[in-house]
Amino acid sequence: MLFTSGDWKVDVSEFNKDRFTTHGIYEFMCEKFNQLIDATVEVNQVDLTDEHGYGFCQVDEDGEFLIHIHNDLSYEDYVTTLIHELVHVKQTLQGLKDDEMRESEAYFWERLLSKEFNDSPLSGTPISQVSA
To answer: Are 114 and 76 spatial neighbours (Cβ–Cβ below 8 Å)?
Structure first.
């Protein structure tokens, strides 16, 4: 189950999709990793300028995930970052704890799946149109 919160800029202002990009990415990732289907995930767009990163993922004591994602990213960076953080959700559900392995795997999947998502009907915008 996906929830959204925070100061939404990426989906709303840049592409005027009213958070469709986020839901599309989540649906796409659930198709790739069925572990995500039963997870409770909240995506919170927030200013992370002082954090020197695009996003991070937390899990609470109830097993619910909170993904903080920078609210001033380009479309491409937003897609890549959210995919990266959802891979971390999958990893936590699978019990993968080694930080080096988690990051290595997340970078692998973000590169592979970002292009696949952008070329899919779920993105609503083929990558050729985004980069033009």
So the answer is: yes
- pTM (two decimals): 0.85
79: in domain = yes
What is the pLDDT at residue 9?
Answer: 66
106 has a pLDDT exceeding 70: yes
For residue 29, is it within any domain?
A: yes
Domain assignment present for residue 89? The answer is: yes
Tokens 């840049």 found at:
14
d(CA 122, CA 124): 6
Phi/psi-derived region of residue 124, left when phi > 0, alpha when psi is between -120 and 50, beta in every other case: left
* pLDDT band (50, 70, 90) for residue 79: very high
Euclidean distance between CA atoms 103 and 108, whole angstroms? 8
User: What's the pLDDT at 95?
Assistant: 96
Contacts of 105 (CB under 8 A, 6+ apart): 87, 91, 96
